[in-house]
Design brief:
single chain; mainly alpha; Arc Repressor Mutant, subunit A; 3 domains; three-stranded mixed β-sheet; about 5% strand
């Protein structure tokens, strides 16, 4: 394929990478994809022809990885396919087009004016100064305004969202949207909602750690095991004390698992047993019932008779004459 660079500025012995690449593309791209882009950027200065196989060998990447990288950069509109190869687009032009495209994007000033209140505008500016050192790309302004409308977050929750992602070293759009979706599914809109959510998560984490220790698990819980604990604690409203009763029932099991625990706890929930006392009384009654049945079997001489076996088929006929 042949590579061209859509930039008429004279370049000498250095390969220039625009700042917009670091602020808009670097954090969300796969490391191998970045490797491919940088090498293509280098080759484009010299109007080079290069085959996919040669690119694979040069970068030490598989053909599939090279093809996936090219497809990714095409989707990001960084690369444009031509009849004889690809053209590397000017990243500044791409971002300017996004920003000033009629009826599809808003400038930072327009977003500021269209904010529902000055408080919201102040929150956006706080995010800019706190998490972007005052250099937040202008394309983030309409995105944040969109998230305000989509999730109905108040200003404090929006700031907390960026704070959370910043602390996770994942301040890029895909991760922020994933966290925002999770918060929205938990009906978080106000900061009080968020605090309640954190309290629930902290409580569940403590229960999860306790269960792991009691089961002797030397690993973190899977997503599905954690979902079981949320079900028991949030849906069934069972505290750790109730779950511990179920854990004690696993001592006779060779390989206790979460499915077994879930069957016990679901059975108690279906029987409308809510407290430790109610569950212990139910288990005691059940134990006494089983004991009574065994005693009844003994007093009535109940026993299981084994079917008689015959070694001589003639014995089957009781009236057979000798």
């Amino acid at each position: 394929m042949k590579l061209e660079q859509n930039d008429q500025l004279p370049l000498f012995s250095s390969t220039q990478i625009p700042d917009i690449f670091f602020s808009e593309y670097l954090s969300s791209a796969n490391g191998d994809f970045i490797k491919v882009y940088l090498y293509l950027l280098f080759l484009s200065k010299y109007d080079k022809d290069i085959k996919i196989n040669d690119l694979s060998k040069k970068l030490g990447l598989s053909l599939n990885t090279i093809q996936d990288a090219i497809k990714y950069w095409e989707e990001q509109e960084v690369l444009t396919k031509k009849s004889n190869g690809y053209i590397l687009n000017n990243l500044q032009e791409i971002e300017l087009y996004k920003l000033y495209k009629p009826k599809s994007s808003l400038s930072a000033e327009q977003v500021q004016k269209s904010a529902e209140s000055q408080k919201r505008a102040n929150a956006i500016e706080y995010i800019n100064n706190k998490y972007f050192s005052g250099l937040m790309p202008t394309t983030w302004y309409p995105d944040i305004e969109l998230w305000f409308k989509k999730y109905s977050f108040d200003e404090e929750v929006m700031i907390a969202l960026f704070s959370y992602c910043f602390d996770k070293s994942a301040l890029h759009r895909n991760y922020i949207k994933a966290v925002a979706d999770a918060w929205s599914k938990n009906n978080i809109k106000t900061y009080n909602d968020l605090e309640s959510y954190y309290e629930k998560q902290e409580k569940i984490n403590k229960i999860a750690n306790s269960i792991s220790k009691k089961l002797g698990l030397n690993r973190g819980l899977t997503q599905y095991e954690f979902a079981y604990i949320e079900k028991w604690n949030i849906d069934y409203n069972y505290p750790l004390e109730v779950i511990e009763i179920a854990l004690k029932k696993t001592t006779s099991k060779a390989n206790p698992n979460f499915d077994y625990l879930d069957k016990l706890l679901t059975d108690w929930h279906d029987r409308n047993l809510k407290t430790v006392d109610e569950i212990q009384k139910y288990l005691a009654d059940l134990k006494q019932k089983n004991k009574n049945i065994k005693e009844l079997e003994k007093t009535t001489n109940y026993q299981k008779y084994d079917q008689r076996t015959y070694t001589n088929l003639n014995e089957l006929y009781a009236n057979k004459k000798s």
